[in-house]
Design a protein that fits this description.
hpI Integrase, Chain A; about 350 residues; DNA-binding; DNA binding; Integrase_recombinase_N; 3 domains; single chain; three-stranded antiparallel sheet; mainly alpha
Length: about 350
């Protein structure tokens, strides 16, 4: 072994093989494909934004734009892992400080995820080699356990009371709370709901959620009636967004923000703990798991099979049926469901 760390025997064998093939090392270098110069961040980020899904734009768009501000004239292959780590430090230092913040860890995690997404696209486009991807060489901060948990029954009743008796549209807000409590859906699933997604005969709603997932979720006959009534009264077109303001305009994420600000003003404990819509998901799924087991709770949540949250290989075998989900819902709401067998 020489001082350079090369295996001289292996090098000599390679030279001998090339000599017998009539190829010189110079020929190899001369015939190597020439990769075009990588674009600058200012040139490439608009390309990535144009091809990104709405979810990716919402999650990563801010960080892609910040990368343009920082490295706009630099080519993609000129940024090093150290540059990215310095960028993370700057993002963490300027992160908005909230009461439930964790020192900018979430911002740092999103920076790494955003740059990995951008560089994966650059590799797929043939602009850089996989081995030259600097974002893949930067460790992603470990995600801490969530502070969210199930809301106790008495506290949930307080939330429902505030929602139903305050604000400029209690009917809309009460419908939102009931929809999320019964289905444990995410905000995106509720906002994507359309009148054509309602199966009134079987009391099912078709939820379109993150990652392009689609699933049928049972709802109570009472909630199904409210959803149909809401769509009819507020002029929701069959293939348009179902949830709307009184004037007919579709609601946005902003409605949720205003709702929880109002709840926090009336219930100081809700403001202190930063209660949000996702807490309702925790509440329902915790109740389902305690009363109907892990398999039903997993199906109720709409978690993809084979996901990283699975508890062992057994999770791939113990799949809950739609009827079992409907049974859990019927017990939760105290209403019979069309998919459940007749009960006393």
């Amino acid at each position: 072994m020489s001082g350079s760390g090369l295996d001289e025997a292996a090098v000599e064998a390679a030279r001998l093989l090339l000599s017998r093939m009539g190829i010189s090392p110079h020929d190899l270098v001369a015939s190597a494909p020439v990769r075009p110069l990588a674009p600058t961040f200012a040139e490439y980020v608009p390309v990535v934004l144009a091809a990104a899904t709405p979810g990716s734009k919402k999650a990563y768009g801010t960080y892609w734009n910040r990368a343009v501000e920082r490295w706009g004239t630099r080519r993609l292959d000129e940024v090093t892992p150290s540059d990215i780590e310095h960028f993370i430090v700057a993002i963490k230092a300027n992160a908005v400080q909230r009461r439930n913040g964790r020192g900018g860890r979430s911002a740092a995690e999103h920076v790494v995820a955003a740059l990995r997404c951008l560089y994966r696209r650059a590799v797929a486009d043939g602009l850089i080699a996989e081995s030259d991807n600097p974002a893949a060489k930067v460790a992603k901060p470990r995600r801490l356990s969530s502070t969210r948990r199930a809301v106790p029954d008495a506290r949930l009743a307080e939330i429902n009371d505030v929602v139903a008796t305050t604000g400029d549209d209690p009917a809309l807000d009460s419908l939102l709370i009931r929809l999320h409590t019964e289905t444990a859906c995410r905000r995106g699933g509720a906002l994507a709901l359309r009148p054509i997604d309602l199966d009134q005969d079987q009391c099912l709603v078709l939820l379109h959620e993150k990652g392009g997932s689609v699933r049928w979720q049972p709802v109570s006959p009472t909630l199904m009636g409210y959803l149909h009534q809401h769509a009819a009264e507020r002029g929701a077109p069959p293939a348009g967004q179902l949830l709307r303001y009184r004037g007919g305009q579709p609601i946005t994420y902003r409605r949720y923000d205003h709702l929880w600000v109002r709840v926090g003003q009336q219930l100081p404990w809700a403001a202190s703990q930063q209660i949000s819509t996702h807490w309702l998901r925790h509440t329902t799924l915790t109740w389902v798991e305690r009363n109907f087991g892990y398999a039903v709770a997993r199906a109720y949540a709409g978690h993809a099979e084979g996901g990283g949250s699975d508890v062992g290989a057994t999770a791939g075998y113990v799949k809950a049926s739609l009827q079992e989900i409907a049974e859990a819902l019927a017990t939760l709401t105290g209403e019979l469901h069309p998919l459940c067998p007749a009960r006393e």
